[in-house]
Amino acid sequence: MLEKRNYTAAELLTILSARQLSDGQVVFAGVGIPLLAATLAQRLRCPGLTILFEGGVIGAFIEPGKLPPSTNDQRCTKRANMVLGSAEVLLLLQRGYVDVGFMSGAQVDQYGNLNSSFIGDPLRPKTRLPGTGGGNDIASLAQMIVAMKHEKRRFVEQVDFITSPGYLHGRDTRRKSGLLAGGTFRVVTDLAVFGFEDEKRRMQVISLNPGVTRERLQDNTGFALDFAPHLGVTEPPTDQELELVRELDPDRLYTA
């Protein structure tokens, strides 16, 4: 039986994602939950966190109630440290100046690979998706935090197409492919928080969200789950975290 809760799944994703960030990091964030999570972390625990946008803004400052609809929106530039072109921002990734990027996709598999290209046979896809944008660059060159709704159709044994690489086929296959940095650090969902086992580089449950059982989590996952030896229970959102999320997004544009 689930605990009675006074927060939405999107608010939970935002707060749990924010908890994965550390002070002093440079984080590549898109609009929506990634931006909310990065801003929440910056305000509560990580004053030295630098938020970077694909549109070129470095050190973006987000005002409560004025969330930008796009990473190219000029509201992102207010009190920013610098504004560059998109190519220069992606060059920062190549030079190793970005620590972590927020990602999502239509599918994620047991090795943290993401698909945002198409569903089904590549010659006759059932569904065409938006594609990579800067996702492949971020996933190839920095650590990833993946935040997404937990559904069996999205958590699959093998993605239909690797748009953004995690640990490819596990173990050292990422490094052997030439991707020497980064990898999937965390997968955060409305049901659990996942890490990756050091040797196999396979997804591993490190924390169950409040009220979620192992059985329910497995029933909503398309591959056999590994559970950490010291499996934890996620701390529910605090009043302070919820108040700030709702202050930042009072119209519930991203957290309804």
Concise summary:
The chain has 256 residues and is an alpha/beta fold. The protein has helices at residues 9-18, 33-44, 86-94, 135-141, 173-176, 214-219, 239-248, and strands spanning 26-28, 50-52, 57-58, 82-83, 100-103, 107-109, 114-115, 118-120, 125-128, 143-147, 155-156, 183-188, 192-196, 203-208, 226-233.
Give a structural overview.
It is a single chain. By secondary structure, the protein is of the alpha/beta class. The model has no long low-confidence stretch (mean pLDDT 94). The two termini are 23 Å apart. Strand 6 (107-109) and strand 7 (114-115) form a beta hairpin. The chain is 23% helix and 23% strand. 45% of the residues are buried. It has an eight-stranded mixed sheet with strand order 2-1-5-10-12-13-14-15, with helices on both faces. A three-stranded mixed sheet has the order 7-6-11, with no helix packed on it. A two-stranded antiparallel sheet has the order 3-4. The longest helix has 12 residues, at 33-44. It has seven helices and 15 strands. It has a single domain (9-183, 236-248), classed as Glutaconate Coenzyme A-transferase.
